[in-house]
Amino acid sequence: MDYTQNYHLPQWEKADRIMMDDFNAAMAGIETGLSENRESARQESVRLDAKDAALGERIEAARQEAAGLSGRNLAKAQEDLQRGLFRLAYNQCAHLLEKEAPPAVDGLFLQKLDKKEIPSNSAGIEIHQDGAWCASSGPGGTVEAVQDSLEFLSNLVMVKGNLSACEKAVLTFAPTGAVCIRQLSLSGAFDSGDKEESRYRVTLDNLTRGVREMDREIGYEQGSRGGSIKIPAYAYMHGGDKYRLEIIPLNALFSGTFYYRKGLPMTLEYFDLSTDSFTGTLFHKFDAGESGHGGLVLARYDPYDKGGVLTASWGSREQQPLRVRRFTDGRGQEVREAEFRFTQPIPGGSTITLKAAVPSGGDVILYNWCAALL
Predict the structure, then answer these.
(1) Cα–Cα dist 245/151, whole Å
(2) pLDDT tens per residue across span 51-95
């Protein structure tokens, strides 16, 4: 009897007698070999499955990382695009705010507030000599409080036909609240014999800040005779500052000496005297075809005394300024600039609102503002 070369299995010849032991040993060897092969294959399969699972995990991690990287790249690209659009909108607004007569631009609103009339798109706003005025005078805005702070330094002396002999009137004020002296009466007596327009130069110097806040000519047509003259001063004053008001004759149509004392008529413009704060509002409605992916608002202003806070709302969302800068504008005037950014989509026909909230005794002057759709 021979045996196979590799697995030593019996090979019977015709003359051999088949023995049970040989047969069973051959079958047992085959069984053992097959079992060992199966177990080896199973273990290899488990190893390959584990390897495949690890590879799958690495593939999934790589896919998620690629997706995250793609998302981050997209988000960064969108952020960079939005930042660039805001930069373009800011530069365009800042450029147009410096122009005397800015052109009309689609999707952009601009309003200069140095006109001599109250804007129709406003509430709680008065016109200051430099812009729109929002103030809460508080108790310091009463006539009595202003008169208590007044000091009359020199009389107004008029010499008919001799302008060089005339003398200016000088008064100082230190109001504790923001006020506007619209008209001031100087007591005296005159008999000119003519009913003509008297002209004066009125200056207002802020002694606290060292700046001249008003310098203009006024005219007043008075009767041929009377016991007082009325000066339409329109002198705006910030609470907490000391002022020097001068009334300088520009013609000499009558003779007389005139002075001011407490109790004489004084017409004041003032705002709320009792509440803790007061809010002035400016607004603009865009056309139905003007929409954007966001918007930018710039407002140039100055707060005085107890100051004030600006907010802007576009639609139903109200925001505080993203940043407030101090800079010198094209007129050489140092002002503050509040920047607001709106990142949500803005539909056509939207309304932008700018508010100045001032506490009792504070005031804010708004010079100009603009809003641009992205």
Answers:
(1) 10
(2) 767 766 776 776 776 666 666 676 777 777 777 888 888 888 888
Alpha carbon 12 to chain centroid distance?
Answer: 105
* Nearest CA among 281, 279, 263 for reference residue 271: 279
Residue 223 confidence (pLDDT): 61
pLDDT tens by residue, 202-228: 999 999 989 888 898 988 776 656 677
Pairing type for strands 334-342 and 295-305 reads antiparallel
Q: Report DSSP state, residue 252.
A: -
pLDDT at 163 over 90: yes
CB-facing half-sphere around the CA of 58: CA atoms within 13 A? 6
| Strand ranges across the sheet with 122-123 | 122-123, 277-285, 351-359, 309-314, 317-319
| CA dist., res. 185 & res. 163, Å (int) | 21
pLDDT value, residue 115 = 66
Q: What is the mean pLDDT of residues 363-367?
A: 89
Is residue 237 classed as helix, strand or coil in its secondary structure? strand
Buried/exposed 173-187: b ≥16 CB within 10 Å, e otherwise: bbbbbbbbbebbbbb
Between 232 and 36, the higher pLDDT residue: 232
- pLDDT value at 329 more than 70: yes
DSSP β-bridge partners for residue 173: 243
Whole-angstrom distance, CA of residue 126 vs CA of residue 280: 9
Say how far apart CA 209 and CA 277 lie, in whole Å. Answer: 25
Q: Which residues pair with 305 in a beta bridge?
A: 362
Burial 42-72 (b: 16+ CB within 10 A, else e): eeeeeeeeeeeeeeeeeeeeeeeeeeeeeee
Which pLDDT belongs to residue 349?
92
The amino acid that residue 224 corresponds to is: S
Q: 259: which DSSP letter?
A: B
Distance CA 229, CA 167 (A): 15
Strand partners, 109: 371
Nearest to 313 by CA among 278, 277, 285: 285
For the chain, first and last CA: distance in Å? 98
Kindly tell me the burial class for residue 83, based on how many C-beta atoms sit within 10 Å of its own C-beta (0-12, 13-18, 19 or more): exposed
Phi, psi for 69 (deg, rounded to 5): -65, -40
Using left for φ > 0, alpha for ψ between -120 and 50, and beta otherwise, residue 366 falls in beta
